[in-house]
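User: Working on a comparison across species. This one is GAF domain-containing protein from Komagataeibacter medellinensis. Can you predict its structure so I can line it up against the others?
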Amino acid sequence: MSTDEIVDPSIAPSDQIRRFLFHIGIPVAGVVSAIAIIAGVGWHSYRTVRTGALTLTHDLLVSQQDYIAKEVSSFLMPASAGAIVARDMLEHGVPEVEQKIFTGYSSTMLRNVQQIQSFYIADSDGNFSTLEHGDNNQDITITTLHDVGTPKASFTHQLRDPNGKVLKQWETSAGTYDPRAHAWFIDTVKAGQLAWTHPYVVEVTKQITITAAVPYKGLNGKTYVYAINMSLNHLNNFLNSLRIGESGNAILLDQNGHVVAGHGMAETQARAHGDSDKMTLDPDHFPVMTKAFDQYRVHGYGARTVTVKNKKYVTITAQLPVGKDSWVLLLVAPEDDFSRFAMADGRQNLLFFVLVVLMASGFGLLLFLQARRADRMRGQIAQSRAVASYESHALQSVASYPDLFNPEDNALVLTESLAEQAHARRAAIWRILHDGHTLMCIDSYDRQQDVHSGGFEMSTTDMKSFFDSVSHGDALVVDDAAKDERAVAFYRVYMRSFGSKALFCSPILGSSGPVGVITLEDAPRASLVSHFVDMIAGVTAARFSAQHYTAVAAAKEELESEPTTEEAQRDPSQGFLLRPGALSMHGQEGAPDLASVEGYYPAVAIMVISLSDVVMTAQNDPTSNIKLLDSMATMLQDIAHQCGLYSIRMLGHRVVCVAGWSRTPDKGAVYRIANAALMMRENTLAALSQADLDPVFRIGIDVGPVYGGMLGKDPQAFNLWGDAMGMAEMMAQGAPDVGTIQVSEDVYLDLRQYFLFRERGRFFIPGAGLTRTYVLAGRR
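Assistant: Here's the predicted structure for GAF domain-containing protein from Komagataeibacter medellinensis:
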């Protein structure tokens, strides 16, 4: 069981909840409540100030609008009032003094009212006179039209000083000019009362002008029209000079959206090329005013707020009566122009509240972290106690194992306890044999697969750096064994095939020094349970001291306990370790001639080692290649001889080993061939690792009947064939991974009490049907 799963039954859930509420819940809730209250007050204050500021803005704009309306009315009043006064004077005067009345009254008005540009008078016969400014504001120019409608039509111009003295006189052609054809005459006569024209551009002065005209009947019965022309440039300058907030503007428009005066008048006039009908607001240049005027068209007069490009503007539209028509006065100002001080004050207050909230949040966070830290420390203390209790329980389980110090028992509980405590992927116990040059794996436990294996041997010549560290009793902690020079050889031989990376080694110390080592692979908690590892190392050292045999002695004892062959002189021509026919019967010498080996053998154990072509061609130097293969062949022959095999032969990239060559079944043949397979695998892995080659070989084993015999003439070649031979080859070729030993179901049934296996599954074998295969993992 993992230490994370340990629960202290003395701690009730209600106690944990109560402690959480008192240490964390109530303080944090209090801080959060204070923060919420402060934030709410700050937001309410900000909204109140902002609302009041906007109300003040609207009030100020309304006052500004009233002021502008009065100013515009005052601007237009001289024209409307003056036209009525002039009409009464002219209407009751005799025709002979009509011109004098027109000149005297108009010149006085022209000199004293700045916005008046000129005066017109015309009758129904086409007679026409105009009075306007001369070269300066005091002089006047009087123009009279003669012979209207004839080719001789002309204008007589007189420049007079303030005393009426003629300073200059000249004539110009009138062409086809007829005052009766102009709008100011036609509309006024049609209205029969004071009328205002639409703004228009005077061609001579290029100024925008508006005319107030009034009709009357003369004593001679003619219809007259008296007109006063007002220059809107003065009104435009007045509107542009107004300060509405900090960046607000005012503009006058007629009901159709034509610009009369105000902001952007010059740009609008230039864009329209002097055509008053085209002088409208451009949405690209004046988006706020355009949107405000559209709001007026939909909702009528009043104050509103519009948003353009994420910025709010306050707008007011008001009506300005001009004769029978009316103009629209439009005021536009950013929302924060009038209320910036209030908004700034509100933002400062809000910022203050935010700072208070942040400080409160910081204190609350510190309080929370402090409480969490205290809880973590209590949790760590509780976990340490639980771990200590769990380790004590694990050590008690190990100590209570009945055969803990029995040399004949494997004591698998040791590696299982190590792997469980350190959360290691694999835990292994290794022993340094009495020769001082061999490291043998007593037991290796894979926690993920829940399997044990053992019997691996490694020599000091293959892993000198790792062996030196182990033999000196040094502890070894490596995060990446593939990159550490002390552990790289151990990684290549032992760890790489299992996918392990990190390595933890702890020495096993005997009376005369290190006698072994404990290895933990991918163990994240190895350093935390080092004392537990040391205790297991002490137990293992006691077990080693009770064992009075070496690996070599153990191998000899296994061979003596099983049916063995009598060693004889090797026959290098055939790869026999015994002379053919030396064991024609079980355990008995037969005829020495080769013919005696021919015939049927009911239970022969056959092992096939299939070497990849990579091994055969791995060396660029043929001499090195042959040297590597020769050393491997010698090693395999020595192991075959040590394990009592009958024959070993290398055929291309295959090595064929035979055991149990007898007329009656040899029960120990499969055991000997399995022992030889494990030893050959470990030694081959070491040899390939030393040559910096990957394990590119597979091993297959089967047991069954075969035929054997000598073929050909001198020299004769011995050959064997049968189901067992073919199955062994298929087991080697179909092994799941490189460096693995795959066996048939018959081999598994004979050896399952002595070796560890894992099942691969059910497969279809041609000629044999469905059968199960197994992977030989190690000795029990």
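For your comparison, note: The longest helix spans residues 13-91.

User: Helpful, thanks.
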